[in-house]
Amino acid sequence: MPAGDAFTPEQLYDLERAVRYAEEVSGLHFSVYVGGADSETRPFAVELLNELEDPDGSVLVYVDPAGRRLEIVTGATAKRQLSDHAAGLAALSMQTSFATGDLTGGLVTGVQQLGDHAHQAPLLHANEPHKQ
C-alpha cells in the first residue's frame, strides 16, 4: 500500500484489517494502491495488478485522490468470483465516502464489500448423505 505516509497508524491498521477480512472470506488476495498514475489510470492499475505475487487470484483497488480516479481490477481467477456489477457497487460506496472527504472509511468499506461479494460458499459434497 504505497502512500502509507498519507495515513495515520490507526488508519493503516483499519485498512490492513479490511484487507485481511476480504482475503479470509473470499480466498482471494487484495491490494490497495493510493497515489498518482504514471499514465492512464486503467492500464496503470492493470500493470500494478500484474506485478503482484498472484495476479490471477488478486483484486487491486487503485485510488488517485488528487486525480479523483478509482479503478478496481481483478485477475482471471478473481473475476470469476467478483462480478463487474459487484465491483461497481463497491466503487459507488467508496466514491460516496471519498466525496465527503473520508478516504480511509471509503477504502475500508469498499474492500470489505468486495470480499463479501467474492465470498465463496462452502462446497457441499453430493455423495455425502444428508443428515436430518
Descriptors:
132 residues; alpha+beta; three-stranded mixed β-sheet; 3 strands; globular
Tell me which oligomeric state these chains represent.
single chain
- Overall morphology: globular
Assign the structural class, choosing from mainly alpha, mainly beta, alpha/beta, alpha+beta, or little secondary structure: alpha+beta
Proportion of residues in helical segments: 40-55%
Largest sheet: 3 strands, mixed
Number of helices: 5
- Write out the strand line-up for the largest beta sheet, numbering strands in chain order: 1-2-3
Distance between the termini: 48 Å
Estimate what percentage of residues fall within beta strands: 5-15%
Total strand segments: 3
Unreliable segments (pLDDT under 50, ≥5 consecutive)?
Answer: none
- Rounded to the nearest angstrom, the radius of gyration is 16 Å
Q: Note the run of SSEs as H and E.
A: HEHEEHHH
Average of pLDDT: 89
Description:
- Strands 1-2-3 form a 3-stranded mixed beta sheet, with helices on both faces.
- Helices cover 49% and strands 14% of the residues.
- It is an alpha+beta fold and 132 residues long.
- The longest helix has 18 residues, at 9-26.
- The protein has helices spanning 9-26, 41-50, 76-81, 84-99, 103-117; strands at residues 29-34, 58-64, 69-74.
- It is globular and about 45 Å long.
- The N and C termini lie far apart (48 Å).
- Strand 1, helix 2 (41-50) and strand 2 form a beta-alpha-beta unit.
- The chain is built from 5 helices and 3 strands; from the N terminus they run H-E-H-E-E-H-H-H.
- The mean pLDDT is 89.
